[in-house]
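W.,

You were right to be curious about this one. When I first looked at the sequence I had no strong expectations either way, so I just let the prediction run and decided to look at it fresh. Below is the sequence, 178 residues in total, followed by the output.
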Amino acid sequence: MQPIWIDKIEVARRQITEAVTLFFESRDFVVIHTVIASAHQVLVDVGKEQGVVSLVKNPKGVTREEFRKHVRTVNEPYNFFKHADKDPEGKINIAPIERFTSDFMLDAILMLQNIAGEIPLEAKVFWSWFVSTYPDEFSDSPKDGALKHLMSLGLNEWDFPTIRQFLTFGEIMQEANK
């Protein structure tokens, strides 16, 4: 068998694509979070070399101790989902994981855009859905430009099966153009 080599950016791109697909298929958020948190960590590590930082993991204006506590809190679900050596009987509340995972997905998408200069269709669709679903979080952003355009698409009004069909169509078109 011939080796197939991929770099870290391709790993993150594939993980983001799959996480978005699972998200719009309304699949298990434990799985989605595990996949996107892996992509997110790869991009945090790669981004250090290029000066690209995570907005989720790098709050502004906090002390060193507050920063450490924040990162532990942010990483808690991901670490819980992938380790059992210290707490084999442990439990975690996953009620807030859907929204938390959405934030991780957008942050990973933004880091990938800043590192690679381009993102897959699935990431573009998720970004558009996110900004039109949570417009208040972008109230301090310019009222023109890319965010306004993304919000105007109104993907928050589409149901997930419709968005998934749209992504399937996009996949077909990408294959046809190869």
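Here's what jumped out at me. The CA atoms of residues 45 and 53 lie 9 Å apart. And, maybe more interesting for your project: The chain has seven helices and no strands.

Coffee later to discuss?

I.
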